[in-house]
Amino acid sequence: MSDLSHREPPRREPSPHKVSRRKLITTGLAAAAGVAGLGAATRIAQRYGLIPPDHGGIYGLGETLTYASQRLLTRHSLAREFSRSQISKPPFANEVEPPSDEFKRLQAGGFADWRLSINGMVARPATFSIDQLKSYPSHSQITMLQCEEGWSYIAEWIGVPLSHVLDVVGVLPQARYVVYFSIEPDTWESIDMADALHPQTFLTYGMNGDALPVGHGGPLRLRLPRQVGYKSVKFITHLTVTDSLKGFGKGLGSAAPEFGYAWYAGI
Amino acid sequence: MPDVFTPWYDSRVSDSACLPSVASAVPTATARSRHSALVRVTHWITTLCFVALLVTGIEIVISHPRFYWGETGNDLTPTLFKLPIPASRHLVPTGYGYVLPDQNGWSRYLHFQAAWVVILTGLLYVIFGLVSGHFRRNLLPAKAELSWRTCFRSIADHLRFQRPSAAEAWSYNALQRLSYLFVIFVLFPLVIWTGLAMSPAFVSAFPATVNVLGGQQSARTLHFFVSLALVVFLLVHVIMIVLAGFWSRMRAMITGRAGTMERT
What we know:
Chain A is of the alpha+beta class. Chain A has 8 helices and 10 strands. Chain A has 2 domains: 15-47; 79-258, Oxidoreductase, molybdopterin-binding domain (Sulfite Oxidase, Chain A, domain 2, Alpha-Beta Complex).
């Protein structure tokens, strides 16, 4: 060691006592600033709706970072639209559960008795038939549906923007989420108002110039092209507008997190 | 000398590291650390994240082990290639009579969480590397080292699984430097880019990121190949560490201490 000290250039080293005090103060201040910063960041994030309902648990950090940055970057961006020649022929229909007796009855009647009810934080709760929905201005989009498994297809989706129907029922200003339910048991999802009011979020009743096939969720499917397929729930019968997801299922926002999948699926 | 007095990165660490003769003038390993604390911490966080990303990436891929080129692809369209493995979803025509357990839910959660951590860690590392001169000093090969002959000799040594020389405990050879630079500045940015190009929400804001790759399925296929390249790097990296002396290299990357250099 003495050999080493010869080689070392002379250094003025502060006394250990002084450093440890300075270190203590800096560490203390940094920790306090960190905690205060984190607290403030959480409050700001809550205020601006940047925290997803499934933010708890070990994957909460990643989910919150993804959802918050998507909300800051993509609030108004439009999903890519394709040309008619890019439409997949035929579009791949993922598996659906065997239809219930009630579904078969409605199908036998040409879905004339299919109803979509909307309640919750709306001024005028209402119930709509498919024909009533078709009486509103019809819109179409040629967008991609991609499944979390990895496959995808492009189709023309025809329907009425959800925002139009929400205007009809009069959404109250404190609304933060739209929860939507399928006729299939335990199949429900929710989206925030940014996605609910997005111009490409459709209540879809048609596909590729025709009625929406049952295999693709006909007669009524909620379609949102900026999230992967499982958010585009088939066979929609009911919507609830709410300011909190606490009262729905386990309070994680949708059935997906209860099965271990993320609530926000824009990735 | 207690660690408290050492700056978080030590400029003495590697200034001399390129030159074995100077390096050997340092008689004991305690005088300096082989890898700065920030390099060591970011290295192991990246290692953890890479393992998580690899395992969950495999889990996600087996739910649809078919690859396509262009915008779309599914069970009804021709593939670019198929992995000869069973799938974790029963609709996929794999030719196997059984379906693997489906682990997509937590795999997706963990894949994206690990991606966040590795990107933030990588950003910290790159900023540190530029500011501290780590890249310039430790990773940029010297002009003299870049001759074809040196590189070929280095490649030949690797192919013959030649044990690295003692000097390489304190410095990287040219091939090593080039591979690390390639991984840091080509493969990692590419794997992040192709990953983001698969996100429907991200590409709605930045459509060019997927359009220039030729489509969403092309991005998925490229993501697979870049990941494969990273796995190949990992394998070679681990083999070289085993050849060079597993415990001494592990110690250098964990504690910062490299083995005592012999005087020349």
